[in-house]
């Protein structure tokens, strides 16, 4: 890899680690009993407020003119990548655990890759090349690791006496058929949310071409639409005004952390990386979030660690490395993409400058 290609890898690794910690903390907040869509609405609103000054200061000269069609596309982006995705994903997370959520999230590369083939964003002929075979093998290994982690618990590696509360809660909650049904239903909800996230990644790849040089403005618009969408979706569970008043300090902290780190920063980084490398490449970093969530759940939230978590995490990281190996074997296209984006940004800025000059020339002396 060249230096230009390492930048998306580094930022996606950092973002994936952060997202693992976000999901572990969100699970803790949902256990308090807060409406998950009210939580999501606050999260999206904070994301929008954080991004407003960045989009105004850094992108006011390069930002293309907003049209009605672009607004509609950002509305759809908010539905796929934020409101509907969080509706199912957070609901599934409340029924399962951060480790299970991130394990199923590791199927994101396979789902995105399959959808990209269906929508002909990825060329099926590339599967016959060495790079295509490696990417396919890496994707399958990631799925294997996720399934291994989800369905095989194994022996408890950590000392049981160091996690008495977690063991008590797991024993209490795991009894009965209702909990088993909730777990299966939670997995279905999680899978639905991951499919929506895959669709958003593919949709965002197309949107970034129509609305270039605006990673902050685009994410800000998406967050604004998603905040209203989440507020409407919250009505299905509760219509009491009191539910919007959050008093728990932990929940308030998690909302702020999830809004700034898990939504604003993460979405900006993901959108930028999709523009540089493509949706399929970005989706392969989901196993890193799995490992991060597992470790964060164990070290910070004091949940027990099992052998299946360790083996599954190692397998998924192996799959990620195989996929990256295949990606490195592809012809270098990142530099040409970057140059094309830079040229389009420069053209937009030049057009704005020419417009200002024309308006100045038209002023009476």
> Helicity range of the residues?
over 70%
Radius of gyration: 22 Å
**Strand count:** 0
Overall SS class: mainly alpha
Can you describe what's shown?
The protein has helices spanning 3-30, 36-59, 68-95, 98-105, 108-118, 130-151, 164-173, 177-210, 215-233, 249-277, 279-283, 286-299, 307-328, 334-362. It contains 14 helices and no strands. The chain is globular. It is an all-alpha fold and 365 residues long. Residues 161-174, 334-344 and 352-365 have low confidence and may be disordered. The longest helix has 34 residues, at 177-210. Helix 3 (68-95) packs across helix 9. Helix content is 78%, strand content 0%.
Quick summary of this structure?
The protein is mainly α and 365 residues long. It has 14 helices and no strands. Mean pLDDT is 77; it is low at 161-174, 334-344 and 352-365.
Topology of helices and strands:
Blueprint: H1 3-30, H2 36-59, H3 68-95, H4 98-105, H5 108-118, H6 130-151, H7 164-173, H8 177-210, H9 215-233, H10 249-277, H11 279-283, H12 286-299, H13 307-328, H14 334-362
Give the tags.
365 residues; 14 helices; 78% helix
């Amino acid at each position: 890899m060249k230096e230009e290609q390492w930048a998306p890898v580094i930022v996606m690794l950092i973002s994936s680690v952060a997202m693992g910690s976000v999901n572990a903390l969100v699970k803790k907040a949902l256990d308090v009993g807060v409406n998950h869509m009210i939580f999501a609405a606050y999260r999206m609103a904070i994301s929008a407020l954080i991004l407003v000054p960045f989009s105004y200061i850094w992108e006011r000269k390069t930002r293309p003119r907003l049209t009605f069609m672009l607004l509609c596309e950002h509305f759809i982006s908010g539905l796929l990548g934020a409101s509907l995705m969080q509706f199912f994903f957070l609901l599934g997370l409340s029924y399962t655990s951060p480790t299970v959520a991130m394990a199923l999230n590791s199927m994101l590369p396979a789902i995105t890759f399959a959808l990209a083939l269906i929508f002909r964003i990825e060329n099926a002929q590339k599967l016959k090349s060495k790079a295509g075979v490696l990417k396919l093998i890496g994707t399958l290994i990631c799925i294997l690791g996720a399934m291994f982690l989800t369905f095989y618990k194994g022996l408890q590696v950590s000392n049981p006496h160091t996690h008495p509360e977690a063991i008590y809660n797991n024993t209490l909650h795991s009894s009965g058929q209702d909990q088993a049904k909730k777990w299966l239903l939670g997995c279905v909800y999680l899978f639905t949310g991951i499919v929506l996230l895959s669709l958003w990644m593919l949709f965002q790849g197309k949107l970034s071409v129509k609305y270039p040089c605006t990673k902050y403005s685009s994410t800000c618009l998406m967050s604004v639409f998603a905040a209203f969408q989440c507020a409407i979706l919250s009505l299905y569970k509760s219509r009491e005004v009191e539910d919007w008043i959050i008093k728990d300090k932990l929940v308030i902290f998690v909302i702020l952390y999830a809004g700034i780190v898990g939504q604003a920063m993460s979405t900006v980084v993901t959108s930028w990386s999709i523009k540089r490398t493509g949706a399929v490449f970005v989706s392969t970093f989901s196993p890193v979030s799995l490992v991060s969530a597992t470790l964060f759940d164990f070290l910070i939230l004091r949940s027990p660690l099992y052998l299946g978590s360790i083996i599954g995490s190692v397998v998924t990281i192996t799959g990620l490395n195989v996929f990256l190996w295949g990606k490195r074997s592809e012809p270098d296209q990142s530099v040409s993409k970057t140059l094309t984006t830079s040229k389009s940004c420069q053209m937009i800025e030049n057009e704005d400058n020419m417009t200002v000059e024309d308006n100045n020339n038209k002023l009476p002396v």
